[in-house]
């Protein structure tokens, strides 16, 4: 089986699993978006996914994502990895969305970065869809915003000229039951929806726990290995 056929089969299988779960949870058809995670995989794989109808992919590392975005300008790349403030200007040039804002410092740096990118004609869209990465256990080593700081950070993003608060991203803490994690995160998101008086996105669920995430309201699942296979050896 060639690489194109392999990715096509994998993509179809994951989409079928998502559709089955959505149906079983009595959610509307099309209510969950699949975001393939292409980190560490070559740009040729992303090209194949684009040919197969994929229009957005998730990336973790700024330099790798930037290179892919330059080679594939028609593909939307979402930043889903931890962000260093010194990389914010670069991320603001290529990111179609950012899922991993975890501090006011990062939010404001991205806001300035988008303004600069637009000014320099490096970016056409003056608004960057922005998600807060939620930390349910408060572990600073894994990134994420502690629960007690989420609303204040959401308001900072909402007030930023070039950012739009779109929702939360959640990764279950190590050792946690995914059901518990996603249920808690969904509760936080519901509070934010009430606070801002609008529906928000919920970026939650990967290959191993997308069923649990969809059950608790995920609208975006981030799947890497199940579609692209194991990471290529360096």
TrEMBL record:
InterPro entries: Ala_racemase_N (IPR001608), PLP-binding_barrel (IPR029066), PyrdxlP_homeostasis (IPR011078). Pfam families: Ala_racemase_N. The modification N6-(pyridoxal phosphate)lysine is found at residue 39. Its cofactor is pyridoxal 5'-phosphate. Keywords: Pyridoxal phosphate. Residues 9-232 form the Alanine racemase N-terminal domain. GO terms for molecular function: pyridoxal phosphate binding. The keyword Nucleotide-binding does not apply. Pyridoxal 5'-phosphate (PLP)-binding protein, which is involved in PLP homeostasis. PANTHER family: PROLINE SYNTHETASE CO-TRANSCRIBED BACTERIAL HOMOLOG PROTEIN (PTHR10146), PYRIDOXAL PHOSPHATE HOMEOSTASIS PROTEIN (PTHR10146:SF14). HAMAP family: PLP_homeostasis (MF_02087). Belongs to the pyridoxal phosphate-binding protein YggS/PROSC family. This is Pyridoxal phosphate homeostasis protein.
């Amino acid at each position: 089986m060639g690489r194109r056929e392999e990715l096509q089969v994998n993509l179809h299988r994951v989409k079928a699993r998502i559709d089955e779960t959505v149906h079983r949870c009595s959610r509307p058809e099309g209510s969950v978006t699949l975001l393939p995670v292409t980190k560490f995989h070559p740009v040729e794989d992303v090209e194949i996914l684009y040919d197969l109808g994929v229009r957005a992919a998730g990336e973790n590392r700024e330099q790798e994502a930037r290179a892919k975005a330059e080679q594939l300008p028609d593909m939307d790349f979402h930043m889903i990895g931890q962000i260093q403030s010194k990389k914010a200007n670069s991320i603001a040039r290529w990111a179609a969305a950012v899922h991993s804002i975890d501090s006011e410092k990062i939010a404001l740096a991205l806001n300035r970065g988008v303004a600069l990118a637009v000014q320099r004609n490096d970016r056409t869209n003056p608004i960057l869809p922005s998600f807060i990465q939620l930390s349910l256990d408060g572990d600073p080593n894994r990134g994420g915003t502690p629960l007690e700081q989420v609303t204040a950070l959401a308001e900072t993003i909402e007030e930023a000229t070039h950012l739009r608060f779109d929702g939360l991203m959640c990764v279950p803490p190590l050792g946690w039951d995914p059901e518990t994690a996603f249920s808690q995160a969904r509760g936080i998101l519901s509070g934010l929806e009430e606070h801002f008086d609008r529906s928000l996105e919920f970026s939650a669920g990967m290959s191993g726990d997308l069923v649990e995430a969809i059950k608790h309201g995920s609208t975006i699942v981030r799947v890497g290995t199940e579609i692209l296979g194991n990471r290529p050896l360096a």
